Amino acid sequence: MASEEVESAVQDIVKKYYGETLQATTDLKTSACCVANSPHPLIKAALSNVPDEILMKFYGCGNPVPLGILGLTVLDLGSGTGRDCYVAAQLVSGSGKVIGIDMTESQLEVANKYKKEFIESMYFPDNILEFKHGYIEHIHEAGIQDNSIDLIISNCVINLSSRKDLVLEGCFRALKDGGEMYFSDVYCDRRLSEEVRAHKVLWGECLAGALYVEDFRELCKKVGFIDPRALEAEEILIHDPELKKVTGDAKFFSITYRLFKLKDLESNGENYGHTARYLGTMRGLERKYDLDGKFSFPKNKVVKIDGNTAEILTNSWLSSHFAVEGTKDTHLGSFDSLSIIFGKEIKANAQGCCGPKDCPEPTEKNKTEGCCTPNNAEKEPCCTPNNAENKDCCTSEKEPSLPKEPCCSEKTEDAPPVPRREKQPADEEASCIIS
Ligand SMILES: C[S@@+](CC[C@H](N)C(=O)[O-])C[C@H]1O[C@@H](n2cnc3c(N)ncnc32)[C@H](O)[C@@H]1O
């Protein structure tokens, strides 16, 4: 099937599921569309102003409405009956705007049913909330202009598209520079089998279309969202035995991602010595701001950050809430320690030929008796359990006039020669690093 045909076949399945099969959240067969953690008290307060029918037809999997969005223009992809739009409208307040897009008429009907009454009861301007019929793969056709949106939110929808590339590309175009996609969706720990991907109920339940999380990250980068940041994640449980059988060992997660549209992001977190201080200025987040799973900012505390985070906090919609210090003039290496990059701990080289690579784990014996102990630096070449292979580079057998190096191993035969030098008093203290 051509990709357009697949796109429209999937849309038909999903429309039927949300337009006819499901009547309320309780009709769902898995927790995929309702795993959202308890929301922030300000969101809870906003939810108390959302009409009951809308709340009962909530099929989201997260809390993708960030705080601190006063005055922003927000777009909700796959807004359903509009719960998140009604919440976001209260946060952007009179100076902002919220647009919801959905392809299922019956969902839009419910969303629109309460709009006027809600706006009047809140004393908001008429145009604060708008629901459009449209497809998330083609938001431009639904009237969303390029570079017009500050924040795109979405709750358990993008997995339902067979053309996630088009969705992300359209979002990248629609966002202003410094704008952000902040959305919760379903991901998988592996690429799903054809059997799962062809299962209609699993499509409707937001599982069959879930991307392997690494493929999703790659797609983001390809589109231009160079540094996707995960904020929250929760495993989705499949209780239905039949669906469980089809999905097998695959694990599904609801993850809230943050994708910033910024020109100067790099593919890795690089260290330039930047710092940032959160000013405590977001309503509801006066004490701390969590940017993602890695960077958290207690109010007024100076936090070391990588170059990308400096870029985000300087040039995105978050910028007025942070004081960022530093430039990119001097590169100080990778922000993450090398042990993360190489996947194992890397120890410092103690001296000359006796680096950690060359030092097997010291035995109890040579810890106490060999030259690894500070007092015995010259006693015997150390670090191999029996010292058998160390003679060449470590003992004075070949060049008796040289002082012994404190420790060596067999690998040093291939290593560049250790420069000769006079024996120093500190040599007495030299030893392998034992940690
Ligand atoms: C799981 S529901 C989530 C609805 C809403 N975000 C919420 O949290 O209640 C998925 C919604 O996305 C809409 N949808 C799915 N695929 C879509 C597409 N390709 N274009 C537009 N809307 C889509 C469906 O009509 C449905 O309302």
Please, could you describe this protein's structure?
This protein has 435 residues and is of the alpha/beta class. The protein has three domains: 3-260, Vaccinia Virus protein VP39 (Rossmann fold), CATH 3.40.50.150; 274-338, Ribosomal Protein L9, domain 1, CATH 3.40.5.100; 347-435, no CATH class. Helices cover 27% and strands 17% of the residues. It contains 15 helices and 13 strands. The protein has helices at residues 3-21, 41-47, 52-56, 83-92, 105-113, 115-122, 164-174, 194-197, 200-204, 213-223, 241-247, 307-315, 338-342, 364-368, 391-394, and strands spanning 73-77, 97-102, 129-133, 149-155, 175-188, 211-212, 229-236, 252-260, 274-278, 288-290, 296-298, 302-305, 322-325. The strands form three sheets. Strands 1, 2, 3, 4, 5, 6, 7 and 8 form an eight-stranded mixed sheet that branches. The radius of gyration is 29 Å and the shape is globular. Mean pLDDT is 82; it is low at 352-360 and 365-435. Bound molecules: S-adenosylmethionine (SAM). Residues 11, 14, 18, 33, 58-60, 78-80, 83-84, 102-104, 107, 135-137, 155-157, 160-161, 206 line the site of S-adenosylmethionine.
